[in-house]
Amino acid sequence: MSNEENRASVKLLNTNQILIQDFFSNLSKFYYDKARAVIEKSKESSKVWSIFQTALTNFALAEKNYNNLIFISQRPATRIGDRYYESAFTAFEQINKETFSLRSNSLSTESPNLYDTLNELSHQLISLIEFRYQMISLYSELKDKEMRQEKDSIELSLKNLNDLKQKYLKNETSPLIESLKHVFDLEMNLLTSLLTCHSSLDYKLDCIKAIISIKKINNIFNSEHIFQASKTIKEIKSFSLFSRATSQQRQQPALFQWFKIYYQALLNKFSILMHDSFSQIHDVSHVMNDKIPIYNQLISFINKYTPFLTGIILDTTLSGSTNFRGSGYEFVDIQNHSKNKSGIDQFPFVFSYPKLKNIDYEKHVKNFAYLVKEVFDSKVKYYYDQNLKSSYYLYKISDYYTLVVLFEVSKQENKTKVASILQEIGDDLNMTNVFGSFNQNLK
Q: Disulfide check for 397: which of 48, 49, 401, 413 has CB 3.0–4.6 Å away?
């Protein structure tokens, strides 16, 4: 190649590198149409570049569908996002073949530097598309209620997520797509912290670990531009356990809106399970009443229907229950607590309203012990004890936790309205509403 041809090649490379970098920068800000418009500005007309343009266009459309959760609302065989990714994947593979052919042809004088760059980017984007396919499967499994209710399903999803991060996101990438890679990492960090918090509350019963995860999520919400207010309005206030953002947010894709919904649901759950600890903090009941929807909903229910007791029971007879960090963050003597337990000690309340007295609980503990061991799905279960003149409503939140409401009444009466409200509260506490509506009611 002559010096003049070499200079032209370098100029062409630099010009198109700027376009490529601008494309991925817009993609990382979720400006999909702007990204496509940018890449179409190129004056390069070679066959390889034309294929690359088409690939990027399809990739942008696929990313738009992915981040707006279009894929999760469609059947696998008809998912538009899948088809766009497939088209981009095929085009990137074709680029690899074309550039290999050009490099093999020693007579070629066409922009070798640009083609080397396109070849490198194509390899890396193929890997990222494969990663997206795996993530679509993971989100679909999270949405599937039957799969989610299988034992350790959240733990398994967390393990799979970490495996995917190691396989696809630990490799070095070109500076040209660094901005997009950051969005991939952001999604992974958020989802990892959310699933870790969920697992810590439901399966590991470790509220300390849950607090650490919550702090990590807060840090992301407070530092990433996608969660910040636009410059035309006042700055967003910092997130905290009980704070609300008072200023308008930037428009976020549905996936990132869902992350915030998931986070709020975990805060609800965390705040109820840790209620006894929070209640010792000055004026916390006022804060919780205003800022934690599930607490407000429970108190409204109690005030309206005046049950004898409303609470959440922890089944300590299950393996792993000695890891529980609840009232005061831990049992006073966790080693001794796990031994020689019986009756009331086997089924303590991690939340109760009004505050439970053992003398009130003793006559009901046998019924509770039997009922929480019953295998039933996430539906409100009703039971009446003729001897005790008591009605019990129960909802299984997780293997360890059961929401219970007790009425002392003279006759059996299954109140449909009570069961309906408890079903709604229970669905919030066990995340059914969060996972069951990935792409619904997102604002």
A: 401
